Please model this.
Amino acid sequence: MANSASLRLLLTHLLAQTNGESVDVEALRGSLRLTKEAFDALLQRLVEEGLISIQSETISLELDQRINVAMKAVELGADPEAVSRSLGWLEFEELSAKVFEANGFRVMRRFRFTAEGRRWELDLLAIRAPYLVCGECKHWEKGIGNKTARGIIEIHLEKTEVFMRNIEGLRERIGILSWGKAVIVPMALTLSATPMDIYRRVPSVSVLTLPRFINEFDGQMERLANFKAELQPTKPETKKHRVKKTPRESKQTRR
Model:
């Protein structure tokens, strides 16, 4: 238990101190109340798990590493609010995608499409039969109780409805030609640790509690906005084979 608490503390400090820059190993150790032996053991564990890289006594984290460190910290019980404050906008979108992917979804990031006379963009499109989750990533801190946040939900709901009406023409791009039906779900994703809220049946879910929400996904459908689309069966292409003529048939043709 103490080891988990120490690892959790180390991960949260790593996130805070490597936000866009590297950190000296000794400086990191100095910011923690850990013995040198305990600190070195935890650091070695993180290196072996591929969560961090150390070069010349300096730690710097790539985007994927920071995402994995954030997920590991929350998994170990770190304060979601503290973790969220250490993540930037791009990391937020990538973390959202990673959580869906870890739960069996295929994710298309920044999915753009043209329909009904204009261009539209979904921050992420999470795909797992029969669901197509249209995610809108927003960095609000107080839920969807204010007018601005609710306006964003209204626009996202409209965008999702346009997507649903034009799903047939997008099936090949999305890779769902074999599907007979789709359930399209609009969702707002937030970086802060606000409780789940619902406006016009569209949920606003903290990315840090998204794993739990996805685990209960099927049971949520009755109270969430979703659009069911019956998809037309696709016909497999038939190749035309040339029939070889016999020598006798060729002579008759030439006559």
Observations:
- Residues 2-86 form a domain with the Sec63 N-terminal domain-like fold fold (CATH 1.10.3380.30).
- The longest strand covers residues 118-128.
- The chain has two domains: 2-86, 91-230.
- The mean pLDDT is 85.
